Amino acid sequence: MATKWDEICHHDEKILKSFMELLDIKTGQSVLDVGSGTGILLPYILEEIGKTGRICAVDYAEEMIKISRNKNVNSNIEFKSVDFYDIKPDIYRFDCIICYSMFPHVSDKEKAIAHFVSLLNNNGKLLICHSESRDDINKCHRESDKTVSEHILPPAVEISRIMETAGLEIIHEIDKEFYYILGHACQDML
Q: What is the pLDDT of residues 56-102, one digit of tens each?
């Protein structure tokens, strides 16, 4: 799917920019783009972090990372074709972690969120977001082939509960036209 991905998937620029506004990324910050795919978000993140910031773009699909690397030639992006659990907190820490259009594909959502929290700096933010509604995403997956038919996005309230259990303060929770949840790591929790 990597070679066709940018042609078959539509990403509304206005919604992607709204995610950046929501995160309020600052110049010089470090960002983990989980499930980065072909690098759809990378130009938007780069605009926010400037030349002194750092992005780690992670995707399990090696072909997606190859395409992203070719599209996004920039010295402050590190590309990794690994499972996100291979990003270890003793080596990497981030001010922001973004999971864009990938969270339905995570089998153990509690474990994943706990891992993301372990990678956050003090006052770090975790954003789980999609530019489509949960209903549309789930319908698309259910109607797809068997590889993703069981990859369902739970209601936002359920993901918020998991984030709160992991120690994040929920800042925004939307589960309507498009889907996002933003959690903020309190300074004293890490």
A: 999 988 988 998 999 888 889 999 999 999 999 999 999 999 999 88
Q: What is the CATH number of the domain that holds 22?
A: 3.40.50.150
Tokens of 171: 């800042």
pTM metric for this prediction? 0.86
Instruction: Mark 69-88 as b/e (b = at least 16 C-beta within 10 Å).
Output: beebeeeebebbbeebeebe
Structural domain count, the chain: 1
Per the listing, tokens 């800042």 go with 171
Residues 6 or more apart whose CB falls under 8 angstroms from that of 171 comprise 125, 182, 183, 184
Q: How many angstroms separate the CA atoms of 167 and 43, rounded?
A: 30
Single-letter amino acid, residue 49 = I
Q: Looking only at Cα atoms, what is the longest distance across the chain? A: 45
Query: Which of 152, 151, 161 minimizes the C-alpha distance to 181?
Result: 161
Q: Note down the domain range covering 30.
A: 5-189
In tens, the pLDDT along 22-61 reads 889 999 999 999 999 889 899 999 999 999 999 999 998 8
